[in-house]
Amino acid sequence: MGYRWLRIAVWIVVALAVVGNVAVLVVILSIRSEVASVSRFLMGHLAFADLCLGLYLLLIASIDAHSMGEYFNFAYDWQYGAGCKVAGFLTVFASHLSVFTLTVITIERWMAITHALHLNYRIKLKQAGYVMTAGWFYSIIMSSLPLSGISNYSSTSICLPMEDRDTYDTIYLVTIMGLNGVAFFIIALCYAQIYMSLGKETRQAHGASMGEMSVAKKMALLVSCS
């Protein structure tokens, strides 16, 4: 990684990502409720995706610690070995599943808040299951393409599919960027509508309405973090 502060920061993120998302999964799986919650179902998928991203960072941090000061002796074996392929698969799978799940969560919250009086507009658990199955297939396909020769995970030491050799590689990279852009647009649009649905009184909140204004600000923060 080249810098000590970067190594320390990565290990901190690894600890938070692994411990935090494992804790979320344990809590979600331990809840026993007669009525299945779509929100908990989706949050479980998001936590699993973020856990995979934490495991990717753990692999990168571990090889960095193992090869510190002499990475040139390990570069070829690492980048063209199974380890880098596993790390690359994890990060592409995790990032796509995370963005997909976050988009679905946003749409589910948008429907629940902006159509609060219309119960038929809610996403049911069965529907959420079908949607997330599609999301898993999509994420697995996108993370498997570099293993089949479309771009590859060996072009960089952090095992990201950055190689652009031909038209197929270009289409793959543009598709990734385009789909992430579409997801961000959907998330931003949904949260903007949620914010607007709070009403002018809330946006100019005073006194008791400050709580709702705080919620609106947190929504804007979520869009920025996305």
UniProtKB/TrEMBL annotation:
UniProt subcellular location: Membrane
Ranges for domain G-protein coupled receptors family 1 profile: 20-226
An annotated Gene Ontology molecular function: protein-hormone receptor activity
Record has Transcription regulation as a keyword: no
Keyword Membrane: yes
Keyword terms, alphabetized: Leucine-rich repeat, Membrane, Repeat, Transmembrane, Transmembrane helix
One Pfam family it belongs to: 7tm_1
GO cellular component terms, A-Z: plasma membrane
Domain of life: Eukaryota
InterPro entries named in the record: GPCR_Rhodpsn, GPCR_Rhodpsn_7TM, Gphrmn_rcpt_fam
Membrane-spanning segments: 6-29, 41-63, 86-107, 128-150, 170-194
GO biological process: adenylate cyclase-activating G protein-coupled receptor signaling pathway; hormone-mediated signaling pathway
Matches recorded under PANTHER family: GLYCOPROTEIN HORMONE RECEPTOR, LP13728P
Record-stated family: Belongs to the G-protein coupled receptor 1 family.
Name the record gives this protein: G-protein coupled receptors family 1 profile domain-containing protein
Organism encoding this protein: Glossina morsitans morsitans (Savannah tsetse fly)
